[in-house]
Amino acid sequence: MQADLIIVGAGMVGSTLALALEGCGLDIVVLDAGPLEVAGFEPRAGFEPRVSALSAASQRILQRVGAWPGMAERRVSPYTDMHVWDGSGTGQIHFSADSVHAEVLGHIVENRVVQDALLEVMQRRGGLRLLGDARVEQLLRTPGGWQLKLADGRELDAPLLVAADGGNSAVRRLAGCETREWDYLHQAIVTSVRCAEPHQRTAWQRFTDDGPLAFLPLERDGDRNWCSIVWSVTETEAKRLMALDDTAFRAALGRAFEQRLGEVLEADPRLCIPLRQRHAKRYVQPGLALIGDAAHTIHPLAGQGVNLGLLDAAVLAEVIRAAVARGEQLADVQVLSRFERRRMPYNLAMMAAMEGFERLFQADPLPLRWLRNTGLKAVQALPGAKAMFVRQALGLGGDLPELARPLMAD
Known about the structure:
There is one protein chain. The chain has a domain at about 5-40 and about 55-70 and about 110-180 and about 275-365 and about 390-405: FAD/NAD(P)-binding domain. The chain has helices at about 10-20, 55-65, 70-75, 110-125, 170-175, 235-245, 245-255, 305-325, 335-360, 365-380, 385-395; strands spanning about 5-10, 30, 50-55, 75-80, 80-85, 90-95, 105-110, 130, 135-140, 145-150, 155-160, 160-165, 180-195, 200-205, 210-220, 225-235, 265, 270-280, 285, 290, 295. α1 runs parallel beside α8 (about 305-325), α3 (about 70-75) packs across α4 and α8 (about 305-325) runs antiparallel to α9 (about 335-360). By secondary structure, it is an alpha+beta fold. The radius of gyration is 21 Å and the shape is globular. Belongs to the UbiH/COQ6 family. One of its GO terms (cellular component) is ubiquinone biosynthesis complex.
């Protein structure tokens, strides 16, 4: 099978790239190791454990590729405020969408909701070739670009290949792309819980002695007592918490959260995810580009991972569309480097900031505890500084691609 572009990975980032490029004149194949089937959605069904905190910039991208209506029909949970505090001190900070005249700070959305809405659009439009249950086993360079050999024996050829197949990217590994990576020696426990009090459309985050604990607001049939939790703890503590029965886990979670939303009444089954940071030394080589988690994974401290990936997809689509319009060779590393130059500095800066926060709030020495509490209090007291943080969370700063920019009426 021959194509102009093969996108490996039909998750949120790969599917967004495909839809952003639809209609540009390229023959595009999107393949994924799993089945490409839209799951039936039941509004009263329980929440998926994996969620994303989508920024306003990500919302605009998803709107412009046509996926947002399908997401809204299923389930999205807007939040207007964010409250962060240090469990070992008195420092705290409150962010509000009102401070920058915005309606919301973002939306908490189950990853499955985003993926199904994107897949639905791709299937409905029919301008892309989709291959499910297509696991890449071999990757070969050819005079014309790349040849992919799948587990079922099929072969695909294209001059340009995009890896959007996640943190454990098979394409990145098979292409020999080097990475820098390190283990946080922490794990994230994720689940959904129902609290005695409503979440007030607020994203809550407490820094504990073990790691950050986030309660992210969810809504189901008007019920605002549900939250998605992301609890970063040491490996030893994660093992202990995962071994607790439901009653003991809910009690431990409530104590760690200082009962800010009252008693934790219900908890769905828990997942435990090892936390590892990874960054590719290069995002591109001739005929190849890495985007999303295939290029970089980040600590879930601020829920920025998927937002970085969607911006990767939007920028790469912009670069490819411009190159097509100019009649350039898309596989040329000089063309692909335009994407890398725009995204790598931003992603590295965000990763460094999250790493700094993580280390600062894990620190035990008294001077560092004083520093973080003083810093939180200082930002809380400076409306201009708070507004800057809010604008960053909304995705209103930096080199935004066209798909992520506000309309004049926004």
